[in-house]
Design brief:
Layout: E1 11-16, H1 19-30, E2 33-34, H2 44-50, E3 68-70, E4 78-83, E5 96-98, H3 108-124, E6 128-133, E7 142-146, E8 152-155
Length: about 160
């Protein structure tokens, strides 16, 4: 420790081919909102240009609409969808868990209903189901999904 009281702020960055495809999906998944550009700028691209980022370093269309989302109440991490040139080719080493079941104090049947309803909404928004975790005697139910670009996450 260096003796300062600096605070660490968590941002989740998701590498992707098409931020505009993932932003609406994750808004639905997390209940977040698009992050407005700072300082009265009309777009993020305008902000980046004002900050000195050369146009040639900004992918075509990048920043014209928000590529990051934030919780509406300001509590929780910012999520930025960073456009990268390479495709996803291996399993994620880190994934998001969307905890919607209510915990083990909630009856398993109620948890299953909540989790299934959320997974149904997300498949309608473009997710695909990878597997359902429902082992007899485990008092656990969860669904592993992939977002529209194949990034794994769990609903439990």
């Amino acid at each position: 420790m260096d003796g300062t009281n600096s605070q660490v702020v968590l941002q989740i960055t998701i590498d992707c081919a098409d931020p505009q495809r993932l932003v609406p999906f994750w808004i639905e998944a997390l209940g977040y909102v698009p992050e407005p550009p700072p300082g009265g700028h009309a777009t993020w691209r305008e902000y980046w240009s004002d900050m000195g980022l050369p146009e040639e370093e900004q992918p075509e269309g990048a920043g014209e609409i928000p590529e990051s989302i934030v919780p509406p109440d300001g509590v929780g991490p910012r999520v930025w969808f960073q456009q990268v040139p390479e495709d996803k080719v291996v399993k994620n080493r880190v994934h998001l868990d969307l905890k919607v079941g209510g915990g083990r104090e909630v009856p398993l049947a109620v948890r299953k209903e909540r989790i299934t309803a959320k997974a149904d909404r997300l498949t309608a928004a473009g997710a695909t189901v990878s597997r359902v975790m429902d082992e007899p005697g485990m008092d656990y139910f969860g669904i592993v999904l992939q977002d529209p670009e194949g990034n794994e996450f769990c609903v439990g």
